Amino acid sequence: MISRIKSPAKQICIATLCSLFVYSSALASEPMPIKFNFTEKTSSSLAYKVLELAVGKLDNKYELQGADVVYPNTNAEKAALAEGKIDIRWGGATKVDDTKFKNVPFPIDGGLLGYRLFLIDGERQAEFSAIQSLEDLESMIAIQGPGWGDIGILENAGLTVRTGPYNQLFKMTVGGRADYFPRAAFEAIAEQAANVDDAPGLAVEKSLIVHYPLTWVYTVSADRKGLYDDIMKGLYEAYDDGSYKKLLLSDANVKLSLEQGNLNGRKVIELPNPNMPEEIKAIPEKYWFKPQNNSW
Asked: Where would one find the signal peptide in this protein (predicted)?
């Protein structure tokens, strides 16, 4: 019997092909990064936790990664998404250029973002208790951060809005630069507690809710259809298996608003939202949380 001896060159070729196969397989199994704007508050935010939950439903396909730099405001974050420096962002739903961006049609906060409590100078509570209508509110000045989607909604309703850096808005409110700072129900109570030492007198107004259709949504580049489809798949799977509802209702700030916000005992002033995207309006009713009834 004659043994065939493989040439050294052939052995090297086979070894190289095997190595390439192993390397390619390893690459294929590694999760793809999803870059986002990471700030000191990101990991504790509801939107980040919901995204983490959704990505966890996708069989280790993706890995969340903070961007190389921090984008300090909404406008900078939108520019970073347009330039491909981040893959996803979240914020209040607004109409986008659909040749550049796509909103993922799922209400991250169940629509709680549109239920607005006011941060005010507590000594002025009596003035706000006397408000019974939108017309009564027109003589007062609201304050918001630059580029925030709420600005257009408030101004469309005939309300006056000033802007300033987020970390100065609390002092500006009690310092007379504005009369009230509208915040989502799940933001107002925690922010008052966190900022009252630096802005003495800061209080959560006790009698009013301004409500307009609004929710946080995720936005991705229009050319990332695969990412768009996968994020949507993960979100709806989390809703269907109950893990999304459990996460939302266990969020510390959401719990605080439902327990201490007196959301079903306030005067409600309804505003239209002319900037609500059609794809978000079309989200079925069952996905929208109703805080007055504490239910979907």
From this structure: 1-28
